[in-house]
Specification:
Elements (H helix, E strand, L loop, with lengths): L1 H15 L2 H71 L2 H11 L7 E7 L5 E4 L13 H9 L3 E2 L3 E2 L6 E8 L10 E6 L1 H7 L9 E6 L5 E3 L22 H6 L4 E7 L5 E8 L6 E7 H4 L1 H48 L17 H33 L9 H18 L3 E8 L2 H8 L1 H21 L3 E6 L2 E7 L3 H17 L14 E8 L7 H17 L5 E8 L5 E4 L1
Helix pairs in contact: 2-3, 2-8, 11-12, 12-13
């Protein structure tokens, strides 16, 4: 028994260690230790080189941060001087004259100086286009008044010019508590980028000055496309954006993997007195490119040695093993991509693979048939899921999908859209009088009428539920929508379907009309609600009527109905 068991184990070992596995093992035993030792030493040198580069660029980042601090400090000094003058002079006119004369020519990073009064409006400015501008909604202005200290804003856009800018603010109340004015300075972002020029033009180096929200304020000239963008939208820095912004350290270093898969080291330094940070990121691969080439060469040499050892076995095995497997794999891939007619040609395969090819062909035939049946079933289900089978129109689900699409389209093109909610008058009495089959026939005829009108006016008709229909009218104003609503009412009445329990003795409809111009503050449900309210009003006024409602903004920004 022990001999039989030993033989079985030997057979299993032979299956596990095939000829190619044995040759590969031999090559590794002979060559791998020497090559791996060389690669290990190169990896150590690579790590040291990256550490040296990280230290160098960390120092550069701190130097650049100090330069940015000097700029901000000079702005703070100018603002405090202007505030002292304003507190001592008191008169706005005289303060404005001094302000015009106090803009230093040797501080080109200050674009404009402004004085903002207690009402939040600019009283005077070195650039007259800003005089009278209301800045009460600016966060930096509120913060300066609350803290009574120097405030440096985040990235924002100027109200008059829409140009990107960073503002510095210093309240006069910091000197004279009775004063309510604030001195402002617009900081030139281009100049802040120039200060970072020593970080530009270096392969593998990304540098950015960001505000407290992670928006890039400044960057070297060759990376200027980052300016104004959020850090998490910059591919090379998005992976570390949250950590860099949330850190409360004055400076630090992190390692991460960028969106492109590259390993990067990051150094950051906070600009004292502000929430801004200077970030410098290093692509380790580019910094250590030379030694990486040596490491790759070592591994390539190891690979070539193994390749030559295995070459003989591979040549013999290629035709008998690899090619048949690739042939069957290629056919399986084509089959997976939807080519149901693909079949394995057994004549081109070794005899050992013929049973596998036969099984593959049988499986392909069965799966192809099942896939065709599944596609046909899914197509039918898709139609059923979005079509009302009684009226032939779209059902509520199909209508909602179309409404969402047209709403987004109208937002993009700033166009109007209208909605008609249509209800068959006293339909329950109609069903009770004539029976449900006649009721279904009535709804079918109303649906057919709406479909024709929708085709003529480029609209979209749907059955909303029960006896209620809707007609969506893209690019249609209220006046045109009202005319179409009247057309719907008249065309249904023209059908002359008897309705003895109705005051009009024929089937009629009530129509609610709503129109809006979609924007970010409104929702599709608001349009439905308005049209439904108009329909309710039409019912209340005696039915067989067309009533319109519009959507309008209130003073507090909410959306309401307006008749």
């Amino acid at each position: 028994m022990s001999r039989v068991k030993l033989n079985r184990n030997r057979v299993k070992l032979k299956r596990l260690l095939g000829i190619r596995a044995r040759l590969a093992l031999l090559a590794l035993i002979l060559v791998a230790p020497l090559m791996l030792e060389r690669a290990r030493s190169l990896e150590d040198e690579r790590a040291k080189q990256i550490a040296r580069a990280a230290t160098e660029f960390s120092n550069l980042a701190q130097h650049s941060a100090d330069a940015q601090l000097e700029v901000i400090s000079s702005v703070e000094t100018v603002l405090k001087s202007a505030a002292y003058i304003g507190a001592s002079v008191g008169d706005v006119g005289r303060s404005c004259e001094i302000l015009h004369a106090s803009l230093p020519a040797n501080l080109p990073w200050i674009r404009t100086l402004l004085i903002v009064g207690g009402d939040g409006r600019v009283q005077c400015s070195t650039n007259p286009i800003f005089v009278g501008l209301d800045l009460t909604d600016r966060a930096y202005l509120k913060k300066a008044r609350e803290s009574r200290d120097f405030v440096f804003s985040d990235y924002l856009f100027a109200k008059v010019t829409s140009n990107p800018v960073v503002m510095a603010a210093y309240p006069v109340s910091a000197i004279n508590r009775a004063a309510d004015s604030v001195i402002l300075a617009g900081v030139n972002l281009d100049w802040m980028s120039k200060i970072m020029s020593n970080l530009g033009g270096r392969p593998g180096i990304s540098a950015a000055l960001i505000d407290s929200t992670g928006t890039v304020l400044a960057a070297p000239a060759d990376q200027s496309t980052m300016i104004g963008r959020s850090l998490d939208s910059v591919p090379l820095l998005s992976a570390i954006a949250e950590q860099a912004i949330a850190s409360d350290k004055a400076q630090g270093a992190l390692s991460f993997v960028a969106a492109d898969g590259s390993k990067r080291a990051l150094s950051f330094a906070r600009i004292a007195g502000t929430q801004s940070r200077l970030i410098v990121s290093i692509d380790e691969a580019k910094v250590s490119a030379a030694i990486d080439r040596e490491i790759r060469t070592a591994y390539v040499q190891l690979g070539f040695v193994c390749l030559f050892v295995l070459l003989g076995a591979l040549i013999a095995a290629e035709k008998l093993i690899i090619q048949p497997i690739e042939t069957i794999a290629a056919m399986a891939k084509r089959f997976g991509q939807g080519d149901w007619s693909v079949r394995a040609v057994r004549q081109s395969l070794p005899a050992e693979f013929v049973p596998l090819a036969r099984a593959f062909n049988a499986m392909a035939a069965q799966l192809g048939q099942r896939e065709r049946e599944l596609v046909a079933t899914n197509d039918r289900l898709t139609v059923i899921a979005s079509i009302d089978m009684l009226s032939g129109l779209a059902n509520r689900r199909g209508f909602q999908s179309r409404l969402d699409f047209e709403w987004m389209k109208a937002q993009q093109h700033h166009s109007e859209m209208s909605l008609l909610m249509i209800d068959v008058d006293q339909f329950k009495l109609f069903n009770d009088t004539y029976g449900h089959p006649e009721g279904d026939a009535c709804l079918a005829r109303v649906g057919e009428t709406l479909a024709g009108i929708a085709d003529d006016c480029m609209g979209f008709a749907a059955r909303y539920g029960g006896e209620e229909f809707c007609l969506l009218l893209p690019n249609t104003g209220l006046s045109r929508a009202r005319d179409i609503g009247e057309l719907v009412r008249a065309e249904v009445q023209k059908l002359a379907m008897p309705h003895s329990t109705s005051n009009h003795e024929t089937v009629t409809v009530s129509v609610g009309v709503a129109c809006t111009k979609p924007d970010a503050s409104s929702r599709p449900a608001d349009l439905i609600e308005a049209a439904d309210a108009a329909l309710y009003a039409a019912k209340h006024l005696g039915r067989n009527a067309v009533i319109e409602h519009g959507l309008g903004p209130l003073s507090d920004g909410t959306v309401a109905l307006a008749s």
